[in-house]
Each structure stands twice: as C-alpha cells, then as structure tokens.
C-alpha cells in the first residue's frame, strides 16, 4: 500500500482512500500515465471519478482493464482516446504509478485525427457517462463525418455553437437534437429564424427557435420569413423591434400552449400575437386558423374558427 499524499481540493470522502489499491494490472502494453488526450476527448468530470472511488473504496487494478491510445506511425506520438477518467482515478489513488495498461493502435499520419475520433465515439469509460449528443457531434466533426460537417457549416453561418463546436464569446449555444430538427424543417428557415432572434434579442433559445422555424415551414406562413414581401418585413419589425420592447426571448416559449408538441404551440402563439399586432395597425397578416388546427390536432378536436 502506498503512503498517503495530501492532494489539495480533494473531498475528504475521496482523500481517505489514497493508497487503497489492490489486484494486478492487466498484462500487455503500457502507456505513460500522462499520455496527452486526443482532441476529441470530452471534458474531465471529476465528480464521476469521486463517486466511483467512494463506491469501490479505492482502486481495484483488476477493474481498470485497458485504456486505448493511438500512436502515429511517423513519430510515435501517442494520444489517449479512451480511459481519461480511469487514469485520473489512478492518479488520485496511486500517485506513484507512472504507466497503465493500454491497447495501442498504430495509425497513419493522414488518418490520425479522423480515426481517433471514430474510435472515441465507440468507446465508453468505466467511470464516465455515455457520450452526449453534443460530444458525439464534436467527435463526428473531427472524424470528418459529412452530416456533422454540414451541420457545422450551418452553425458557423448562423453564429451559434453546439457543445464545443464553433464556440466564441458572441455565439449563442443551441442543443444539437433541436437544431437538427430545425434543419429537417428547412435550412433557409433555420438560418432566417436564428437571424431574427439574434437581431431582436442578441441571443438564441432552443424552444423559440424550433417554434419559429416550424411556423416558417408551414404552408401559408412562408412569407413571414421572406423580407422581400411586405408581410415578411412587417414580421421582422414586429419580432425584432416591437416584441423586445416589452418581452424577453423566454416569453416566446408561450407556455400556455404547451399541450401537444411544444414547437407547434409556439408557432401558434407567434402567429396569433403577430396577427393581433397587425390588426391593431390595420394591416394584413396570415390567418391563424391553419396553424391553430395543426397545434390542436392530437390533443382535442377543433371546431373553432379564427381567433
């Protein structure tokens, strides 16, 4: 058993297990414990490691298994693609350990980044969570997956970020699953919706974005997204100037219309509010009846007319 070493910042519930280790390492190849992480790696989540340590009450080397690393053929450079959390566990409990068992995969220079990312997607650490959609997206981008690169090109065009992809101080974060749903409704509609939300509120929120894109994609409402039409210009002025004077972007969630699919309720709320604004100014707006029927379909019969 190793001598305990004080590690600043460790919870006392974890610190008491420093030096509590047993069992044998798996046979075979080893890599240095400080092997650099591959660029596709997710952020380190210390709480997951701490929880595992307290459950196991130390380090059982039998359970470590093998980390996975890739080695570039030309210069022997190593990059860790699986085992980050387990290795950090070893660093905490067994500070004298300098290397760990690993499967080492030789990779040609041209495939080093993309192959590493593909392997990472298929790997899960013993003390780490499954990859989130945002983490999968990042690794797919690094692996040069065509769909991921397409999504990346759109978020770059829109000035938003997904997870760690396209992050800048000015870019609003969006959720991967919701943004992809928006793109399925329409690329141009998605780009226009982001543009309007950022113009009016200096940010983007997932639910209002999805509802706005859904509205733009419906027959009879496409002109709302078209600034070359009179109603499109009026809609832009309403959403980017009139609405922000009295409301924040979260008010566009229209929580009172959450029955059924929320994006449909938001689309209905937007259409209804814009129509009311236009009527008060003596101007035309698309009828709210079609989008109201779409929203209400599935949770109650609709026999009403125009609001």
What does this entry look like structurally?
- The chain is of the alpha/beta class and 307 residues long.
- Among the domains are: 12-112, Conserved hypothetical protein from pyrococcus furiosus pfu- 392566-001, ParB domain (Alpha-Beta Complex), CATH 3.90.1530; 203-296, no CATH class.
- It is built from 13 helices and 8 strands.
- It has a 4-stranded mixed beta sheet with strand order 2-6-4-5, sandwiched between helices. A two-stranded parallel ribbon has the order 1-3. It has a two-stranded parallel sheet with strand order 7-8.
- Strand 4 (67-72) and strand 5 form a beta hairpin.
- The radius of gyration is 26 Å and the shape is elongated.
The CATH C-level name of the domain at 12-112 is Alpha Beta
Q: Can you summarize the main beta sheet?
A: 4 strands, mixed
CATH architecture of the domain at 12-112: Alpha-Beta Complex
Mean pLDDT: 87
Measured on Cα atoms, how large is the radius of gyration? 26 Å
Overall strand count: 8
- Bin the strand percentage: 5-15%
Q: N-to-C SSE series?
A: HEEHEHEEHEHHHEEHHHHHH
